[in-house]
Every structure is written in C-alpha cells, then in structure tokens.
Write a sequence for this structure.
C-alpha cells in the first residue's frame, strides 16, 4: 500500500470493483500463556489468549494475506478482528477513533495523522531496498511522454497516502508544484475507474495496481524509481492500545510474527506472488511481477527512518498540504525494535 510501504504500504484489487472500507472478523488462536506475554512485554503477566487485537488491513495485499501465505496466521496467540480499508488514511482515522489497535500503512498517512494531532504512533518499519515502487501511469495512447507534460493535467491520487508524497516528489524534481496540475483525490476503486474511463490524464498509485493497469489496460509508466517518494512503510498503533499492557504485549507478538511473514515473502517472491493473486483476485502473472519489485524487509526504527518521516513533514508543510510542521518524534517509538528481527 505502499508500499503499504507503504506500506505496506494497500486495498481490494478485483476487476469487479474495489469496495469501500469494509470490516470482517476472524480469529487466530493458540496456547497463549503468561510466559508468552512476558516474553513480549518484559515484566508483564498477561494471558494473551484473553486478548482481542483489532487490526486494520488492506484486503488481499495486507497483513492477513501475508501471514496466511507464510503459514503463520494460525500461530497468533490471541484473537484478531480484521478490518479492511481501501488505503492508509481511513485506517488511521478509524484508529484515532478507537476502533483499530494496529495496522499497516505507507509513508505519508502517519504524517497527516500526526499533523492532525491524532493519537497514533509508528511502532515498526519495513523498507523496499529498490526504493519507492509507487508510480505515475498514463493511459494507453496518451500523448504525455514527460513529467513536464503533466502541467495542467488531471492526476488521480489518494490524499494523505504514499501516492500523495510520491506525486509531490515527482512534480518537485521536474520543477512543478501541486498548483501546476489538477490533483483529483480518489480512493483506489474510484481512481481505477476514472483512469480506465479517461476521466483523468494520469494516476499515481502503488503495486499491484501499477502492474494491473499496465498488463490489462496497456498503461505506460511515466515516473518510478528510488529518486521519488520514500522506501519505508509502517505499522502504526493507537496510543490508547499501547497504554494497555495486554494490548501492548499482543502488539509486540503480532509485529514479530508479521515481520517473519514479510521476511518470508521477500525470500519466496514466486510463492507470495501466487498467494497474492488469489487473495487480490488478480492473475498470478500480475502479482508475481508486483511481488518481485515490491519486496519489503523489516528494519528497526533508527534515526534515519525518523529523519525520513520528518522530511515528509517538511515537504508537505512547504507545499501547504498540512497545517503545521509537526515533530514526528512524538509519534514514533523504538520500543518494538526487537520485533524487526522476528
């Protein structure tokens, strides 16, 4: 989603139409014990089997699909309520309202949430070694062949999503600003329809939508590469959940398990690509390509990661897209860094 990055960075990707945010419930349970809780949160004594963790997800591309593909979904020692969202921003809105405890998003949603003073905190990070895999695509037959030719054009994107930052960097490096184009904020389902119908001239979006429109609609990639966007995606938790010892212990176990799953996907891109296709309702030929280019690796939250997020703040604030130059250090914790190693 994005990547996740953007999250991971992600959404329902079916040709029949991507639904708006919908909620589903399932549970993963095993012999959660006080010992397991203690290992998750030193000094805590929590029976994790009594905990219910509310997890925000992006159906088909997010945590539930990754855990299932890696064979780890059933190992979580607590119950999970999965809630599906079309992208990161609505997920973090739900998190701020208290209905979601933890979830995966791209690089930009935490910045917008922090700027709005929402009670959320980045707890884990992943990186795409090859850089941001969001891309600006143009329709088949489009006369647009350079970024400069986007001036005066309509570009679909998700406000507050990783695509928002990717688009900002693409325009900036070409000497353009957001005022030089018409930015059309749409969730992925509506953006896909607008793009394929010709209602917009370009679309900034993440995998596997990039690969989908290229393969199925003959779209052409106009701008992609490590020089744009940010390589990071994040797991974000509500501050209320982190203040609850039982939920905090469950979150630590969840992050460690999820990071193992993401490590597996990066090492088994063919298997993940096939599983991703089933979960997303797309041909494996599309998700196989997406899995290879968008492989993500869990990384600890370091000064470099925090500085990267602070740079997003600076760029969004300079562009007038957020109201304040918020300090991201109050919205990031290194407490769960041990989970990055699984």
């Amino acid at each position: 989603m994005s990547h996740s990055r953007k999250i991971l960075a992600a959404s329902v990707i079916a040709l029949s139409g991507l639904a708006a945010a919908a909620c589903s419930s399932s549970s993963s349970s095993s012999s959660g014990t006080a010992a397991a809780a203690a290992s998750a949160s030193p000094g805590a004594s929590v029976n994790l089997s009594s905990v219910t963790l509310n997890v925000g997800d992006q159906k088909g591309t997010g945590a539930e699909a990754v855990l299932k593909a890696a064979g780890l979904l059933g190992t979580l020692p607590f119950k999970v309520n999965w809630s599906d969202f079309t992208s990161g921003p609505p997920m973090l809105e739900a998190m701020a309202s208290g209905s979601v405890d933890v979830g995966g998003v791209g690089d930009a949603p935490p910045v917008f949430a922090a700027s709005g003073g929402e009670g959320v905190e980045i707890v884990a990070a992943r990186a795409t070694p090859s850089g941001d895999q969001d891309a600006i695509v143009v329709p088949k037959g489009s006369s647009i062949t350079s970024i400069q030719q986007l001036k005066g054009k309509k570009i679909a994107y998700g406000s507050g999503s990783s695509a928002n930052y990717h688009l900002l960097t693409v325009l900036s490096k070409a000497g353009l600003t957001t005022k030089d184009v018409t930015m059309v904020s749409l969730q992925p389902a509506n953006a896909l329809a607008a793009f394929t119908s010709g209602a917009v001239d370009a679309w900034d979006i993440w995998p596997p939508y990039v690969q989908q429109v290229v393969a199925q609609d003959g779209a052409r990639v106009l701008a992609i590469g490590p020089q744009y966007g940010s390589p990071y995606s994040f797991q974000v938790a509500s501050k209320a959940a982190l203040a609850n010892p039982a939920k905090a212990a469950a979150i630590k176990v969840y992050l460690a398990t999820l990071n193992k799953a993401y490590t597996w996907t990066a090492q088994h891109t063919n298997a993940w690509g096939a599983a991703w296709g089933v979960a997303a309702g797309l041909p494996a030929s599309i998700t196989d390509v997406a899995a290879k280019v968008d492989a993500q690796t869990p990384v600890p939250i370091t000064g470099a990661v925090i500085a990267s997020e602070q740079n997003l703040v600076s760029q969004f604030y300079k562009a007038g897209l957020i109201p304040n130059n918020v300090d991201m250090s109050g919205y990031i914790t290194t407490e769960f860094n041990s989970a990055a190693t699984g």
